[in-house]
Amino acid sequence: DETSLPWVIPSPNMPTLDTATAYPGQVFLEGTNISEGRGTTKPFEIFGAPWIDGYELVKKLNELNLEGIKFREVWFSPTFSKYKGELCGGAHIHVIDRNQYRPFESSLHIIKTVMNMYPSHFKFHNEYIDKLMGTSKVREALEKGIDVKDIIKSYKGELDNFWELRKSYLLY
Q: Is 118 in contact with 89 (CB distance < 8 Å)?
């Protein structure tokens, strides 16, 4: 929207700018047994599972005070993909400040929170999540109980190098 160009849907599962804003972090839910909202009108903006209590999850997530986002409880039944036709409890991620929102970190907090709340239900699809993340280290750290902030800190040097490198490629 900052370019004044019209939004062109790049994928059937990315119908809005809000979806595109949430996607860089929420895509990692594809590597878990949490529905990433495919089969709904808000893919990647809503997420959940039949075994999740939306009220409790949203309470825990909002207590984290993650930068640039708030959560609202939702119930949804996907028309396809994970949990097709099943009622899922979960959350709707609302990006309220795109400049502060940290998609990757926020989604790690979502995954960690669901892991802690539902240890007997939550599952990674190991090969897929590792492929999405480009490494098994993040999944393994989450499974070991390492704090999300420590996981993020462990990549700070690489991220700083990336931010510097990318400057010469920015178009606007």
A: no
DSSP, residue by residue, 89-104: EEEEEEES-TTT--HH
Q: Report, at the CATH architecture level, how domain 17-169 is classified.
A: Alpha-Beta Complex (3.90)
User: What global pTM score does this model have?
Assistant: 0.93
172-to-18, 66, 73, 136, 166 alpha-carbon distances in Å: 20, 27, 36, 34, 12
Delimit the domains of the chain by residue range. 17-169
pLDDT tens per residue, range 8-64: 999 999 999 999 999 999 999 999 999 999 999 999 999 999 999 999 999 999 999
Beta strands in 5-105 (DSSP E): 46-49, 69-76, 88-95
